[in-house]
Amino acid sequence: MQILVVAATEFEVESLKSKVGSQAMDHRPWTIDFLITGAGMVATAFAMGQHLATNQYDLAINLGIAGSFDRSFTLGDVVEIVEDTFAELGAEDDEDFITIDKLGFGESSFRSTYTVPDNFNIKKANAITVNTVHGNEVSIRKISERINAEIESMEGAAFFYSCREAGLPCIQIRAVSNYMEKRNRDAWQIGLAIKNLNKFALDFLARGTWSA
């Protein structure tokens, strides 16, 4: 089985990369490549399009940290994103927002095409993908009223879109590093989120009892 792990930055998957290359994983039932795209939906879509034009895989896994609108998630929680939406793709009509779907120019929401098996006991969530991370109470309230999403990232929907266009089964796994609120880096738990993200990914790959 050929697997592609996609991440925006090297440090989000650095631990996983080092352990995948260790002797403890010698009997794994798959081969794995890592693709570091750079942050944001444009960088993600370009890097994936370029890479998938000359490489074929059975499964793509997007790993990364994210912010959460939902306070029922604990910082460090690992979640499976089942649906992701380009939140800013559309047009303003005074106080209203018209999605690209309603404009008739395309789609804004995309879903995973592979599901993590139930025995992994991972939480499910919907997400939005943005160019500008929310950090203002007014904009947070508006986006929450318009789209029912628990998680926010800058790459997820672009990953789903790229996989759909390539006909590649895909999953997106995120670890919550912060809550969506006025920017407060002192409250963030990036280290914990990355630790838990890599621990889950390693366990998922090590079990090797699944198939796309």
Proportion of beta-strand residues: 25-35%
Percent of residues in helices comes to 25-40%
Q: What is the fourth-level CATH superfamily? A: Nucleoside phosphorylase domain
The CATH class, by name, is Alpha Beta
Q: What is the strand tally? A: 10
What is the CATH topology? Rossmann fold
Under the CATH scheme, the architecture is: 3-Layer(aba) Sandwich
Instruction: Tally the helices.
Output: 6
Which structural category fits the helices and strands?
alpha/beta
| Model regions low in confidence, pLDDT < 50 over at least 5 residues | none
Based on the structure, what is the oligomeric state of the protein chains? single chain
- Could you say how many structural domains there are in total? 1
Mean pLDDT: 91
Spatial order of the strands in the main sheet? 3-9-8-4-10
In short:
The chain is built from six helices and ten strands, in the order βαβαββββαββαβαβα.
Write the layout of secondary structure elements.
Layout: E1 2-7, H1 14-20, E2 31-36, H2 41-52, E3 59-68, E4 78-86, E5 90-93, E6 96-99, H3 100-103, E7 109-111, E8 123-129, H4 137-146, E9 151-153, H5 156-166, E10 170-179, H6 190-207
Parallel strand pairs: 1-2, 1-3, 3-10, 4-8, 8-9
Antiparallel strand pairs: 3-9, 4-7, 4-10, 5-6
Helix pairs in contact: 1-6, 2-5
